[in-house]
Structure of Type I restriction modification DNA specificity domain-containing protein:
Amino acid sequence: MCPSIITWEKRKLENFTKSYSGGTPSVSRSDYYGGEIPFIRSAEINSDSTNLYLTEIGLKNSSAKMVQYGDILYALYGATSGEVGIARIHGAINQAILAIKPTEGDDSQFIMQWLRKQKGHIINTYLQGGQGNLSGSIVKSLEVRTPVNKNEEFKIGSLLKKIDNLITVNQDQSLTLTMFSICTFTL
């Protein structure tokens, strides 16, 4: 059986996604913090937990925005610029994160993987390789190559997710074996 030929198209991210960033509640207001709402910061976009929580009043009286499990999270500022992941928790984001949600039936996993693969190019083009800030308008203007057939896009996204999971498992096993060998040979 011959593999099917995939037809690709280039589309600006803003034409098939909705995106927004959040804000940080005033740190001088202790009643804004310590609640039940996870407050996801850019270093935590690939984490299933956070150390900081907001109250309902903190969320309501700030520009922080809610994201859902499965939304694409893209780091805009500082040392984490260009990092991307899929939200593993329902929570609020600050201004350093751009939430991206497909609107045309596209696959979040595929888009996230495309953004991850393009990180070096994006950083070199827009930050000239140095630490700095990206903007939502830069990210939204990126041209993404996607399969015309959405089923192909979902298959590719699913395959890339499986590969990522295998890499994670192998890294965990490698770390375990390394620790075992260190313990064994230092006795």
The radius of gyration is 19 Å. The chain has a mean pLDDT of 88. DSSP finds five helices and ten strands in the chain.
